[in-house]
Amino acid sequence: MNADVTETQHGPLLPVQRRGGHEEPPRAARLTAVERYKEILATAAEAHDRMRGHDAERTRELIGRLIESQERMARVLQEEKVVRLGVELHWEKVTEALWEERWMRGKPRPAPDTAVPRRPLHEHVSAMDAAYQTLEDSLQKRTLLRRKP
Amino acid sequence: MSRRDDRRRRIEDSYEEFRSAVAAVLGAVTREHRELAEERARDMFEVVLRGEGVDRALDDPLLANALRNPLFGDRVLTALRDREQAFAEWSRSGAKRVADLVDEVAPGSASRPPEEWLGTPGTADGSEGVPELWRIGTGLVDSAPTLQPFPVAVPLLDQAHLHVSSTYDSRAQAESLVEGLLLRVLSHFQPGLVHVHVWDVNQLTGSLPGLYPLTRAGLLTVHDPARLHELLDELSDHIRRVHTSVLVEGHTSVRAVSEQTRRSEPWRVAVLFGNRQALKEEHQQQLQRVARNGLAAGVQLFLVDLPITVNSPVETVVLRPDGTATCTMTGRTTTVRLDEPLPRTEVPRACAAIAEKREERRSRFGTFADLLPARAHVWTDSSAAGVAAPVGFADGEPVHVHLGDTSPHALVGGPSGSGKTNFLYTMLGSLAARYSPDELELYLLDFKEGVSFAQFAPGRKDPTWLPHARLVGVNINTDREFGVALLRFLSEEMRRRADAAKRHEVTKLEELREEDPGGRWPRIVAVIDEFQYLFGERDHVTAQATQLLEDVARRGRSQGIHLVLSSQDVAGIEGFWGKSAIFEQFTLRIALPKARRVLAEPANDAAVELPRWHAVINHESGVRPGNLIARVPDATKRGTFDALQRTLWEMGPDDPPSLFDGSRVPGLEKQEDFQSLRPGDPSPAVLLGQVIDVAGSAARVRLARTPGRNVAVLGSEAADAAAVLGSAARSLSRQHEPGAARFDVVCLADDALPYATALRAELAECGHTADLVRGEGVRALLDAEAARLRGYGASAAEGPPPTPHYLVLYAVDAAQGLLEHKDATTRVSGVDSLRTVLKHGPENRTHVLGWWRGVQRLKNSLPPGVYDDIGAWIAFDVQGKELLSFGPEQVMAWSPRPRRGLFFDRFEHSRPQVVIPFDTGEDVP
């Protein structure tokens, strides 16, 4: 009888009954106190890990947003610059034009009105242009301000 | 309105309009910018918040302002909500579940606050379970939304070692932790169940000073820092002893053995304080071995700042310089705050109280009643794996003896007066109380004079018996045959069990009991007191006894047959010591004070100095490490063993033991074999005496119708001869219908006359023809009978069978002179007639039962050199060698013994037997 049984990939050649061993005893249903204690504490550890994990995920998400919003910010800044420049030009011209109207009391530049209804910027710019044109037209008595057609 | 005014108004209006538009456009860009910036700020804040974790962030001073900023409020709330969600289960019930668990498994001092238990010695003995966890402090899960403290506790004793790691600053805390745990453990159990050892690499005294009062009760041992090996050796020895004596029969740990019962083996807690450096290599290795094997033996380690790798369960507490700690029970997420150290002054007081209690218990001697189980536990133990029972006390704790596969047989030694009998009573009582008669049978032989074992059989004064006793032999003295008979009986029982085991395909009694739960397979313990008498002579009996003893000693263990041999003088048994095969089997050695050769001398001389009432119990064949010295209680005084026996007798079946009492004369009337005699057998049997065997059967001779069936009694005492002749004749009387047999009772000696007369009268009363013949009448009788028999010779085959005719001849040799006379006419002497009767009688149903008062006298009655007409004889006070003509060479060993005869039946026996003549019930002076 060959006592030197080698295990093949399908398991040992001898069936369990002849191997001289015993079956695996069923897993104890009852845990020891130590095991129960550690099991409960494990829920706290799991919660902690869950929290940190969620934080990490959220952080990744936020960083993605920040990258994207960085680009948006660059655009916004650029737009602002252009708008302010345009405003400046208009304002200078208006101030100059009103200088002749000695009866007029000039007013300071208006503060930005951040409560305006939300509209695409170009609408506000157009409105400003239109208002500028209207003002120009109203000053049209003299030919000082002659708009080119 | 003038045109100028009109124009001015238009200009003003349009200027306002323009100004609004400018404000609007500026507002729009500003707003967009700001909003985006805010969004980004929030996101950036949340990255920081989440990166640290909201729990840590809340405490971070750098973030304090940001956290208060309402802009970030939402994000903070979300993070907090996320945390709550993650911890939902823990917050809901985690801390409570931990607290409930600790309450459940750590009752009493294991987890309650010190004010509830410190100072009061404990009472638990392990029978109600051992706390699985012991409190060390409070834990908090720092990152949890609500701070819910819960108790932190560690396993100790049978379950795991404890490793404490501290820093220079937190060392004092480590000591407080250890002290606190030790006090919890010490205060939980009965004093004496926990022993503490302390070793500190740096100092001899000074570690755990509060525990010092325990030293006086032997509960604390402080070890010299330079002598770590002593501590390790002590622990290793203890572990080894536990493994060989307690962890037998397949138990793997003391906890398993003591499950549900009183803890049998105290715990030993060894506290070792190190200095974060590894020990010397050999100490390290030994310590690792102790760590590996200790828990199963109840040895547990507290290692403080001592690096070690163990593959036994161990929990670690790491103390941080800031006073907090982490623990492997709670993991990395919990910060443990150890409990406050116990109040400085109360610790020594509590230890003193424990020490006192312990002293009290130690000095309590322990009575016989203390050894016995509670009423509810009488007869509840199973002997499947062996038998064990306490026989005494050491330090107030019971000391057990075990008989089983690993310690099959016991040798008990001690000179007379040393308490041997008392010890045997204690042991037998303790066993008999725990195991029922179906679990344990006792066979008890007492060779010396006296009444040691008579207690176990019913007697005149005390009708009770020990239900487990199946056979009790007392006053055996010279009846060594009885010892042989018992050994033979055990040997046969062993065979019977071995056969049964084979049938069930098992090898041991334990397995047989499993395979055959319906069968009755008790363990048998045979106790032979003063067994050396069995081997006293150099004769056939000794040879037989030795051989049987070897057989039973070697093979009895697996069949559940155990021998307990006790002796005053073990040294004197040559046959015993020479046979190491026997000797080796007696692994349990019990030495009473001054016993010699029972323990492995000269190294083990514990018996020499032993005080009275003590015994050395050693399960390891007498080597010193196996010694346990127990104080044996008094089991012989009134109210001890006798009271126990009465209680057990009342519980047991109505089946008394067979009693062999060498000093008693067996009565013929009561003999079973006699009572079962009935008429009808063509070859009636005569009962001559009682054989010395376990069954107490009768020695019998069949009086068949063949030559030689005559019985001779040889001896000078009338009483002896009369007993044999009387028994024989009465046996015959029972086996014939009235009138169907004829008896001639011949009496030729005056001292036999009363017996002869009584016999004749009794035979007549039974309806048989019975004549008493005296003096000269014997000649006529013999001549007549001889003539009749000669006449038969020819016609023996025809006609009806002759009437049985029995000649009972008392002192027939007295008539020798008379019989030698030759008849004038026939030239035939009386002796010739006698010889004819002896020769031809039996085949014609005439049998002679004769008493000759000497061997030579018998020879004179027989033809020279031709003795085979006497088929069976019993010899009393004759010398063995005189009998050589009548029997095999074994007769040589015979010499006169009071009330004993040597019996030999040529037709049945290969060697003679010793028999005890019956008391035939005659009232003669």
Biggest interface pair, counts? A-B, 69 and 71 residues
Number of helices of chain A: 2
Structural class of chain A: mainly alpha
Oligomer: heterodimer
How would you write the strand order of the largest sheet of chain B?
2-1-10-9-8-3-7-6-4-5
What gyration radius of chain B follows from the Cα positions, in whole Å? 47 Å
Query: Average pLDDT of chain B, to the nearest integer?
Result: 88
Walk me through this protein's architecture.
The complex is a heterodimer of chains A (149) and B (925). Chain A has two helices and no strands. Chain A is mainly α and 149 residues long. Chain A has one domain. In chain A, helix 1 packs parallel to helix 2. Chain B has 925 residues and is of the alpha/beta class. Chain B has four domains: 84 residues, no CATH class; 270 residues, P-loop containing nucleotide triphosphate hydrolases (Rossmann fold, 3-Layer(aba) Sandwich), CATH 3.40.50.300; 292 residues, Rossmann fold, CATH 3.40.50.300; 245 residues, P-loop containing nucleotide triphosphate hydrolases (Rossmann fold, 3-Layer(aba) Sandwich). Chain B contains 25 helices and 31 strands. At the A-B interface, helix 1 and helix 2 of A face helix 1, helix 4, helix 5 and strand 10 of B.
